[in-house]
Amino acid sequence: MINFFKLVSLLEGISYILLLFIAVPIKYLQGNPEYVKMLGMPHGLLFVGYIVLAIMLKYELNWNGKTFGIVCLLSILPFGTFFVGRYLKQETV
């Protein structure tokens, strides 16, 4: 399940970057909200999936509060989810 979580974290990060740095500027600079509508729902679903998987892994892998908090914090930082795999690898060593 950890590999699936890493995949979801990568996809969530990509969708967040596209939404934040492409769709939102187009919406406000060109007045075209279509890209936000198109990317918003997939990003939202991936974000919810990321959090649900993080909660499941917290109990499955006995993460402490710090690890779980950092994994959740990385989900709201731009480019943060790209470092989840590396962080989890360091935590298990």
From TrEMBL:
It is found in: Cell membrane. Its main location: membrane. Pfam families: DUF3817 (PF12823). Keywords: Cell membrane, Membrane, Transmembrane, Transmembrane helix. It is a multi-pass membrane protein. GO terms for cellular component: plasma membrane. Residues 3-89 form the DUF3817 domain. This is Integral membrane protein.
